Amino acid sequence: MKKLTVSLVAILISAMAFSQTTKVVSAFNYLRNGQLEKAKLNIDEACLNDQTKGQAKTWFYRGNIYLSLFLTKEPKYKNLDTNALQASYDAYQKAIAIDPQISNENLVPPSPMVGLYYIGEQFYNQGADLYNNKNYPTALTKFEMTKKINDIFGAKDSIATFYAAQCAMQTKDTKKAKSYFEYLQKMNYKQAQVYSQLSNIYKAEGDTTKAAITIGKGRKLMPSDLNLIISEINIYLAKGKMKEAQDLLDLAVAKDPNNATLHLVIGANMDEFGNFEQAEKSYKRAIELKPDYFDAFYNLGALYINTSLSIKKQADKLPITETQKYDELKARADKLLDSALPILENAEKLNPKDKNTLITLKQLYAIKNNVEKIKEIEEKLKNLK
Hints:
Distance between the termini: 96 Å
CATH superfamily of the domain at 290-385: Tetratricopeptide repeat domain
Oligomer: single chain
Structural class: mainly alpha
CATH architecture of the domain at 290-385: Alpha Horseshoe
Strand content: under 5%
CATH class of the domain at 290-385: Mainly Alpha
Mean pLDDT: 87
């Protein structure tokens, strides 16, 4: 009786094991026949059963099934698992962890590595859609998954890493963005934003040396890139190296002499660093190239006003005895205000709803005691929504 009991138990265990193995086979057959709901049901049961959950092929088939669920266009199957792509990735990884050699087997469908490669592409596509819709936090996780999968193959992914860095910047995760930019820099990745944004991160950290080196690396890779040229100009200006900055300014303009935006950017940079003559020249050139360029008109007007106020402050600080010097400075300041008025009037014509322009014009008219114009501007400000 005792031996018979043991034999009976052994038969029952064997039958159970066969039954669960059949679940794996059934799942494969259902997948092959396109019956994804039944395939999922059988493989889920097999993944929970002690007899089959330790088998690499169980998880390999689960990866195939869940990848098919993700890719299917049929709504009745599409909604069976909303996280099917991640589940497929996890299943393939489990299969490889149980038996690393499964990747070398001649399997039908192909091995987990083929599935993983395809999953990497799908994660990238998801990331691209999310990025375009400005869902940067979720897009970041998708691009990171693509990079993670490419790392498995020893592939130095660049595009997904670049967009992961951009997502990190958008979510204010500077530390993560920095690590991705540094990774791309080591690859000599030819994308100007990598070097300009990484340089800005270094500058924010107070490491101006690394900031300069980074821009230098970018310039060697992309010597004609205007954004990098301007970034290097800013570095020279910050260090007071005006000759080097001017040489690069000449290079930038030589590369694209009729680019009004370039002249505006140069003007803004010169303005920021107190180079009035160069700023004025660049703004005027931008207007010459693009007569309806509101930003150039506004910036030029602001340059005249700010410079006038600065000169007026100098005059006010003079000793009361230096009347001649005071009169000279005041005359220069007044002349600049006179120059600013028609410039800002043009700006207002180009963009009549710009509040800052209207407020500045009102202040100028007040200095000129032009009551009618003040009333006119006040009415325009009142009508602004």
